[in-house]
């Protein structure tokens, strides 16, 4: 239970303070440490409450709530996904999140999660690749060079030791932006004119496009053996990136099947098509990559436990990096039974 003296004011991490926190820790170190928190929580997967995210879909996008609890702490994230926002100069994804003490129900942290979601998505991808990618992987193609691409590149560098990045986007300005942002980070960057050129000979392929539609970013003939596919962009009903035939040739790994079958690449497959839950690979309950020649596919849609891990990590960092404001968001009358009296007395305060 949280200390009574701390109940009235809640630490709030704004966008400004999140950026200060990231720079105080270091971007790559932040994602590497966040990856460790995610792995630790996946290893205790069975303790968590789990439910597919609650989604409100529209023609323009989706608004979602993503809740979970480990029995001691409750967390949720509010997040939207609106691909057409960029045309109006707006972010495709925005988010905020909260942690609360289960014993009292009192919130203990409120945080922006637009930046934090980008960091945790990249960290989650890298965690999965560390268990599934070919041994000694050094090269990765990133298809889709929008807001998530740089985070993916640096997370894979920090967690998996990737040194070579090949970039492709149908919008060459996005590729130029990504290459410029990654300059000076110790990566060899190659800009490719086609997706085929980008994926040729690489160890890992990351697809992270934003369009809300059934798309074929990778066709079957583009993917050979001995590769790991990190499919990030297919994350809602009616939105995919991979040709179905690639899925049929791959060993598929997911976060939470009831959610991924609705939102992920595997929405193209029958409901009984076999998939492996990633937490089982981490704990040794299931096998990951079974041969050097295999195609492994992480069908990533994002799950609430990852956001829980990210919020838990941020809360722990605030102990030594106090980049937050104390937010007055809880009514705290002297007599907990006299909320009306507190309101009435405020008139004369």
Q: Descriptors for this entry?
A:
349 residues, ornithine cyclodeaminase, domain 1, alpha/beta, 8-stranded parallel sheet, Rossmann fold, 2 domains
Describe how the helices and strands are arranged.
Layout lengths: L8 E5 L1 H11 L1 H16 L11 E4 L4 E8 L3 E9 L13 E7 L5 E6 L1 H19 L6 E5 L5 H12 L3 E5 L3 H11 L5 E4 L3 H5 L4 E4 L6 E5 L8 E5 L8 E3 L1 H5 L2 E4 L2 H7 L12 E2 H6 L11 E5 L4 H14 L7 E4 L10 H7 L4
Parallel strand pairs: 1-6, 7-8, 7-10, 8-9, 10-12, 11-13, 12-16, 14-15, 14-16
Antiparallel strand pairs: 1-17, 2-3, 3-4, 4-5, 5-6
Helix pairs in contact: 2-3, 2-4, 2-10, 3-4, 3-10, 4-5
Q: How big is the Rg?
A: 21 Å
Which fold name is given in CATH as the topology of the largest domain?
Rossmann fold
Proper CATH architecture of the largest domain: 3-Layer(aba) Sandwich
Task: Give the CA-CA distance, first to last residue.
Answer: 32 Å
- H and E string: EHHEEEEEHEHEHEHEEEEHEHEHEHEH
Total strand count, please? Answer: 17
Describe the protein in words.
- The protein has 349 residues and is of the alpha/beta class.
- It folds into two domains: 4-115 and 305-328, ornithine cyclodeaminase, domain 1 (2-Layer Sandwich); 131-301, NAD(P)-binding Rossmann-like Domain (Rossmann fold).
- The chain has eleven helices and 17 strands.
- It has an eight-stranded parallel sheet. Strands 2-3-4-5-6-1-17 form a seven-stranded mixed sheet. A two-stranded parallel sheet has the order 11-13.
- Helix 5 (172-182) links the parallel strand 8 and strand 9 (188-191).
- Helix 4 (149-160) packs across helix 5 (172-182).
- It is globular, with a radius of gyration of 21 Å.
- The two termini are 32 Å apart.
- The mean pLDDT is 94.
């Amino acid at each position: 239970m949280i200390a009574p003296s701390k109940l009235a004011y809640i630490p709030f991490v704004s966008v400004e303070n999140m950026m200060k926190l990231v720079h105080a820790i270091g971007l790559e170190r932040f994602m590497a440490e966040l990856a460790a928190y995610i792995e630790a929580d996946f290893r205790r997967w069975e303790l968590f409450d789990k439910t597919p995210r609650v989604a409100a879909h529209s023609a323009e996008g989706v608004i979602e709530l993503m809740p979970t609890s480990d029995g001691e702490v409750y967390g949720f994230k509010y997040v939207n996904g609106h691909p057409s926002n960029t045309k109006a100069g707006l972010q495709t994804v925005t988010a905020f999140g909260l942690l609360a003490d289960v014993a009292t129900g009192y919130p203990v942290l409120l945080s922006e999660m637009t930046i934090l979601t980008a960091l945790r998505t990249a960290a989650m991808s890298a965690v999965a690749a560390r268990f599934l990618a070919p041994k000694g992987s050094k090269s990765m193609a990133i298809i889709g060079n929008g807001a998530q691409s740089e985070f993916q590149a640096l997370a894979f560098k920090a967690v998996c030791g990737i040194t070579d990045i090949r970039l492709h986007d149908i919008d060459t300005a996005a590729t130029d932006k990504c290459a410029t942002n990654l300059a000076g980070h110790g990566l060899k960057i190659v800009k490719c004119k086609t997706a085929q050129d980008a994926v040729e000979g690489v160890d890992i392929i990351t697809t992270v496009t934003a369009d809300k539609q059934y798309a074929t970013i990778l066709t079957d003939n583009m993917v050979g053996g001995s590769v790991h596919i990190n499919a990030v962009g297919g994350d809602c009903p009616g939105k995919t990136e991979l040709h179905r035939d690639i899925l049929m040739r791959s060993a598929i790994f997911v976060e939470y099947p009831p959610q991924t079958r609705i939102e992920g690449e595997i929405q193209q497959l029958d409901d009984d098509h076999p998939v492996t839950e990633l937490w089982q690979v981490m704990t040794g309950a299931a096998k990951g990559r079974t041969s050097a020649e295999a195609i492994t596919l992480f069908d990533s849609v994002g799950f609430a436990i990852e956001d829980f891990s990210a919020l838990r990590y941020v809360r722990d960092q605030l102990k030594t990096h106090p980049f937050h404001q104390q937010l007055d968001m809880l009514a705290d009358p002297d007599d907990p039974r006299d909320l009306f009296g507190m309101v009435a007395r405020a008139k004369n305060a």
